[in-house]
Specification:
The protein is mainly alpha-helical. It has one domain. The protein is 60% helix and 0% strand.
């Protein structure tokens, strides 16, 4: 009954974690490419890349933290530490095991 919701919620969770962890390799590649383009240390351009990455990470975080339970229509969880555990509604206890 709620399979599509839990599939989408897990996809949003994975994307959020990938963006969070992805800054290290993305930042290194961006730094190297900007160094090749400008032939000097990319100070301000790297800041622009960081701002752009932060924008997408924050946008995904708002989407992740704003998920509503399909059963009780309240926010699914209280904080972002849920990204390291199994998804479960804080109000009614609905999990993807109940589908």
């Amino acid at each position: 009954m709620y399979k599509k919701f839990w599939f989408d919620a897990n996809r949003v969770k994975r994307t959020y974690i990938q963006l969070w962890l992805g800054w290290i390799p993305i930042g290194m590649v961006a730094y190297y490419l900007l160094y090749l383009v400008f032939q000097s240390e990319p100070r301000y351009s790297m800041f622009i890349v960081l701002i752009a990455w932060g924008y997408f990470w924050r946008k995904q975080g708002v989407k992740f933290k704003g998920l509503k339970c399909p059963k009780c229509d309240s926010l699914l969880f209280e904080n972002s530490t849920i990204m390291f555990t199994k998804l479960k509604c804080k109000s009614c206890g609905l999990t993807d095991e109940h589908t």
